[in-house]
Design goal:
The protein has helices spanning about 25-30, 35-55, 65-70, 75-110, 115-135, 145-180, 185-190, 195-200, 215-240, 245-260, 265-270, 275, 280-290, 300-309, and strands at about 140, 270. It is an all-alpha fold. Helix 4 (about 75-110) packs across helix 6, helix 5 packs antiparallel against helix 13 and helix 9 (about 215-240) crosses helix 10 (about 245-260).
Length: about 300
């Protein structure tokens, strides 16, 4: 990766809006972009998931949609959530940065020239660390045919990336975290972003079976928040190191899902209960391993350089 010149650059600022566009929704968005994104994105996501929930419960037609698509009901709800979040992020970028901002976002979503080492770390780092820790703490190796496992997991990974994670991270990392990183510490931003991220995932509890109460929803929020507070710093570190590539960030998210899932990579490689217990430690270790060599890129100044370059 060609290094960004270490020169002092002016802080990035969006172009001024036309006088005709300073009022209305675009004007409000320009003044409060992240508030607009969270309110608009969660409202649309909740509305779409509510419609699917009514169909799923048989109140309105369409309850067999998940079966026809051969996906789990909560996975379909997650997809609908992204259908609310990503358009909201696109609107906010357009309202605050115009067409140039949309072009920058698209370039980051398709930036694949980040160096072979980053691809290797993102694709193999988390599964390798998790497998080694699980085996070291008592899980046993599961005999497996390498080629079928590689093909099946690669297919799942590609679907996760293309259908959900790329668009999800364009919203959370490409807009929400990027804007906050211009003013605050990268890891504080990552943990703070876990709050709206958890709120976006809480409605999935209505689609996983079982009785839903206020208590179960609060527990779900706490669980999603803790999970996001561990994972999002890892994603923030990858974003700073891998040339601001949202493609690599989304791929890291997809690899985490394929490492953590019951039909994922590690579940096919080891037998036992430790693989889930060591996941938080594996995420922290990978974050540290990535952060140490790129520590000079983790400051607020480097975010401003990335935005201005």
């Amino acid at each position: 990766m060609k290094p960004v010149p270490s020169v002092r650059l002016p802080e990035w600022s969006p172009p001024p809006a036309s006088p005709l566009l300073r009022g209305g929704l675009r004007g409000i968005t320009a003044r409060r972009p992240l508030v607009t994104f969270v309110v608009m994105g969660l409202s649309l996501a909740y509305a779409l998931m509510l419609a699917w929930g009514l169909a799923y419960r048989g109140v309105i037609p369409g309850g067999s949609l998940a079966d026809r698509l051969d996906v789990a009901p909560d996975e379909l709800a997650g997809l609908l959530s992204v259908c609310g979040l990503f358009p909201s992020a696109v609107f906010v970028v357009w309202a605050t940065e115009g067409r140039d901002g949309l072009a920058r976002l698209a370039r980051r979503m398709t930036r694949w020239r980040v160096g072979f080492g980053w691809w290797l770390v993102v694709l193999t780092g988390l599964p390798t660390i998790t497998t080694v820790l699980a085996l070291a703490l008592g899980d046993s190796w599961r005999p497996v045919a390498p080629l079928p496992l590689f093909v099946s997991q690669l297919g799942y990974l590609a679907i996760n990336l293309a259908v959900i994670n790329l668009w999800e991270e364009a919203a959370w990392s490409g807009l929400f975290m990027t804007r906050l990183e211009r003013r605050h510490n990268v890891y504080a931003v990552a943990v703070f972003s876990a709050v709206p991220f958890a709120l976006a995932h809480v409605p999935l509890e209505f689609f996983v079976g079982g009785r839903v109460t206020v208590g179960t929803l609060v527990t779900a929020f706490i669980s999603y928040f803790i999970l996001a507070a561990l994972v999002r710093p890892m994603l923030a570190t990858v974003m700073r190191g891998a040339a601001d590539s949202l493609l690599l960030v989304a791929l890291t998210h997809s690899v985490f899902n394929r490492t953590n899932n019951d039909n994922g990579i590690v579940a096919n490689l080891v037998s036992g209960d430790m693989r889930l217990a060591v996941m938080p430690l594996a995420v922290i270790l990978l974050t540290v391993v990535i952060a140490i060599p790129i520590r000079r890129r983790l400051g607020r100044g480097y975010r401003l350089q990335l935005d201005a370059a």
